[in-house]
Amino acid sequence: MFFKCALQLSLSASNLRNLDILSKSDPMAVLYVKKMDGTLEELGRTEVILNCLNPTWIEKINVCYQFEIVQNLVFHVYDVDTKYYNMSVKALKLNEQDFLGEATCVLSEIVTKRNQSLTLNLHGKNGPGGSKNFGTLTVHAEESCLSRMAVEMKLRCSQLGNKDMFSKSDPFLRISRLTESGKYVPICKTEVINNNLNPVWRPLYLSMQQFGSKDNPLLIECFNFNSNGNHVLIGQLHKSVSELEKLHKERSGANLVFPTHRGQEKVLKGQLFVDQFIGKEQFSFLDYISSGFELNFMVAVDFTASNGTPRNQDSLHYIDPSGRLNSYQKAIIEAGEVIQFYDSDRRFPAWGFGGRYGGTLSHCFNLNGTNAYEVEGVQGIMAAYANALHTVTLAGPTLFGPVINTAAQLASQATSNDITKYFVLLI
Known about the structure:
Membrane topology: Lipid-anchor
Main location: membrane
Organism: Gossypium tomentosum
Number of strands: 24
Distance between the termini: 16 Å
GO molecular function: calcium-dependent phospholipid binding; metal ion binding
CATH architecture of the largest domain: Sandwich
Number of helices: 7
Radius of gyration: 30 Å
Strand content: 35-45%
CATH superfamily of the largest domain: C2 domain
Helix content: 10-25%
CATH class of the largest domain: Mainly Beta
Number of domains: 3
Structural class: alpha+beta
Oligomer: single chain
Family: Belongs to the copine family.
Low-confidence stretches: none
């Protein structure tokens, strides 16, 4: 799964330390993302709020949320010296300001909250702990979206011109949007309906991101499909989404036209009709996550002999004393560390298959060697896997069925209890 979207983070703080003698602190917040090498990359700054220990900053900070990456955020709050008030916040040298506190979190922790707000305790540069109270920082995330509007349309044509010699045309529609450069860019197309001059296509679903606005001109072209890719234009017309909605309300058709060499258009008998037009609100991945939808992580490890004896360095199951991860450990870490933030209890089912467990060949056994199939967190999976390498004998053959059936049974039990969960099985 790959998902990206633009977020705006709003920040507020409570009970900040007062570092000014004759007035209150003048706080500003700075947001960083911690990169893989541990360095901090600045993403943005708020404005400075004068004489306030409980600020609510107006300036939003933009962040690109990526589902498949663990995005570690670091927040710093500073008291800005009065002599810098007339400077742009981007020009401020942070080492010349007084440090008020730091907070850290993972972006996933914010977006999984039901109100997409997370309150963090501020602490000193040496990390959490100590007797000092640095106050709290609250972060609220909102998805940056032009519009959630989408439309579902059911289109049909009548009396199309026939472009085939020994049968009827095989028509399909292609819809394109006019860009700022004056060119049309395809945004969707229908399926092909064979041998039919009065086709009715399956409903089309278009989002505002695709068509731009309801008044943006769309080019709707009807082609006769050819398997060699040289599709023949039957006719076309220009209509906006608003005009298509009007056709639906009036239950009228619009004539297709055919462009001529002289730049003119020949009006055709064939017409386009909009039999269904439904405006819909489009929900994003974050809407589901923030409303309580959970992702549940499950792992099944292959213990067939084709992996090689774990004691040998060329084995996929080799545990390197230097700490270098083998292929299985890498997969568990990379998938588990992302998904764990979307599972409230962070208890993960973990199985093995294709090995002799307790002397008996099994294609689905609990990885931790007990009657409980769940382990605690990603580290629990890692520990159970490492222990199983000492207790399980590699065998075969490779059969996925028992593990998939067990996972499917768990998923079906969850849906029967009206719990909104999505299960991810890593084999």
